[in-house]
Amino acid sequence: MRFLVCLLCAGTIGAAGIPAFGQDTGADAGPDLEARAAAYHAFILGRSLEGAGDVDGAVDAYRRASELDPDAPDIWAELAGLYARRNQAEEALAAGAEALRRDADNTEAHRILGLVYAARAGARGGGSEDAELALDHLQRARNAEAPDAGLYLTLGRLLLSTGEADEAIVVLNEVLDVEPQFAEAIVMLAQAYESKGEWEEAAAAYERAVLYSPRRARYRRQLAGVLLNAGEVDRAREVLNDLVEVNPDDAAGWLSLSEVEFELANYSAAEAAANRVIALEPDALRGPFMLSRVFAAERRYQDMVDILEPAIRRARDANVRPAQIANLLQRLAAAHDRLGAKDAAIASLIEAVALAPGDLGVQAQLVQLYIDGGRYDDAVGVIRRAQAARPDNLALMRLEAQALAARGDGDDAVEVLEQALQRHRDDPIAYVSLANQYSENERVDDAVRVLTEAEAQFPSNNVIVFQLGAVFERGARYGEAEQAFRRVLERDPDDAPTLNYLGYMLAERGERLDESVELIQRALRIDPNNGSYLDSLGWAYFKQDRFELAEPPLRQAGDQLQTNSVVQDHLGDLMFQLERYAEAVDAWERALAGDRDGVDLTAIEDKLRDARRLAR
Predict the structure, then answer these.
(1) How far apart are CA 493 and CA 525, in angstroms?
(2) How many Å apart are CA 564 and CA 572, to the nearest integer?
(3) For residue 380, is it within any domain?
(4) How far is 558 from 582, CA to CA, in rounded Å?
(5) 10, 21 in Cβ contact below 8 A?
(6) Which residue from 15, 154, 256, 452 has the highest number of Cβ atoms inside 10 Å of its Cβ?
(7) What pLDDT score does 31 carry?
(8) For 616, what's the count of Cα atoms within 13 Å in the CB-facing half-sphere?
(9) What distances in angstroms separate CA 604 from CA 295, 318, 562, 591, 610, one per listed residue?
(10) Looking at residue 405, which CATH number applies to its domain?
(11) Domain span at residue 400?
């Protein structure tokens, strides 16, 4: 009697997570009953031995159980779980396969196999066959009525990594229906919404995570980031202010607050928050880096130098990653350049190139400095050294053409870009670059031909059509230019560069000035602090003789773009009309000292002479 009760218990317990061994088959099942009973006892012994730390003994017990009841899949599933818990992936996969060979729908085997394949996919960087196998097994182990939190979280992570955000949202909501305060699942749900650009839903999920875990600073920072993406900057600031109030020593929170204040142009608040980061992390780099951004926005270039130079020295002494030091050196070079310390700027960038030889951004910045200083051979030398490793790189070929054109070798620049197009016919930038150089060389028809070919190959690319409009405008083919710009705006009414270019073209020609102002205002609603757009608006007002309206945008543009000769020329014209001759002199002197691009230098010199006479 005791023996039969034991077998009944075995069957009952199996339904709750301990295997139910083979079923009775009738009068001839006596020997099978005895074997299954022994198998059950071997299985229980295996669990006991594993609990006691005797893994080898547990494996032997499970294998003996499988020999006694060879058709029982749950024994192999249990053995697979043991191997998985011991990080013996290959053995776990083999045991799980044995379980599925006996029962293709065994949920536990699918669960173990899914988790093991998922772990292996993560270790190998994802995107592999392991990830696909993991997804298949985990989906088959999924039980929406009683979801396993770990399984669902792993499944959600895999779905996100493979771009299946919608399915990930379904899976994560299923587990949250059962465990509504499961913070990791809530955060992953927010990330799924983020990946789809659904910022409001992501913010709601992060707010839920903050509610259940109010002291988890990371959740508040993530919520603030999503609110920023949603355009809710003020709410993001509120979240971060709450964060640093709750966690006043959270340097990352202060850093995020500094970034938000910076975006709001609250530079004093951004500076204070960045200084708090520096106080909390005196040897770290992110505080000085952020503070240098604030100083740059306020044009406090000497302050940039003063904060960056000691930070770079500390970074060198601390063996910080070369790429990070190179990033700081780039900012230092920009500050030196603004202060007129060209040699110091170049020295900083030479060191940055040595630290990050593969960074095209650093090389481009150094090349530009050389070009600005008339050191064209040095510029070409930097490019040639970079091209030794990447001879067909389009960005480097474009830099080479820029240096050659600046040196006065426009035909050589064209030749380089023609070769670039031959090698990169699948890249629209190659067409645009060549067309732009043709236009600079006054080969308008060739530029139009290249861009027409490009538009046929890339019919939805607005950059090509925009460039076509610019080429027509440079060639004084204004009607065709306007048609091209209108085609861009038909596709994208909020294309700010096109709105500005068309508006400025009309203003420059004194045509339809009310429409010109309206177009540029639309561009500024999209990008309100863009110096070029502000200059366009001020110039359109100037053309309307509305000098009182022209001054604020032209003044702001002039402050932003002090080396842009066109902008300074416009400001000088306005100051002269307002009979503020000394200010006109200052503006025109900046125009002559600036980039000298797109201006009539002789005309500026004549105007400057008159202004100086009247200013006395």
Answers:
(1) 12
(2) 12
(3) yes
(4) 15
(5) yes
(6) 256
(7) 47
(8) 5
(9) 32, 52, 16, 8, 10
(10) 1.25.40
(11) 360-418
Secondary structure (3-state) at 231: coil
User: What pLDDT shows up at residue 313?
Assistant: 94
Alpha-carbon torsion (321, 327, 333, 338), positive or negative: negative
Which CA distances in Å does 195 have to 127, 443, 474, 510, 564?
A: 17, 45, 42, 46, 39
CA distance 2 to 8: 10
SS3 274: helix
As given in the structure block, the two tokens for residue 156 are 């959600």
d(CA 574, CA 611): 12
pLDDT of residue 19: 55
Number of domains in the chain: 1
Inter-residue contact 534 to 550 (CB < 8 Å): no
- Scan for tokens 């001759």, then name that residue: 581
Q: Which amino acid is at 196?
A: K
Tokens of 94: 């083999």
pLDDT digits (tens, 9 = 90+) for 59-112: 898 888 888 888 889 889 988 889 888 888 999 999 999 999 999 999 999 999
In the chain, which stretches have pLDDT less than 50? 1-18, 23-31, 126
Q: Rounded distance, CA 414 to CA 421, Å?
A: 10
- For residue 404, is it within any domain? yes
Q: What is d(CA 326, CA 367) in angstroms, rounded to the nearest whole number?
A: 16
CB atoms within 10 A of CB 94: 14
The answer to whether the CB of 583 falls within 8 A of the CB of 589 is no
Contact 121, 131 (CB under 8 A): yes
Q: Give the model's pLDDT for residue 338.
A: 84
**Closest Cα partner for 84 from 123, 112, 65, 107?**
112
* Residues 149/182, Cβ–Cβ less than 8 Å: yes
With contact defined as beta carbons under 8 Å apart, do 472 and 480 qualify? yes
Cβ-based neighbours of 548, under 8 Å, separated by 6 or more: none
Q: Which residue do the tokens 């067409």 mark?
A: 431
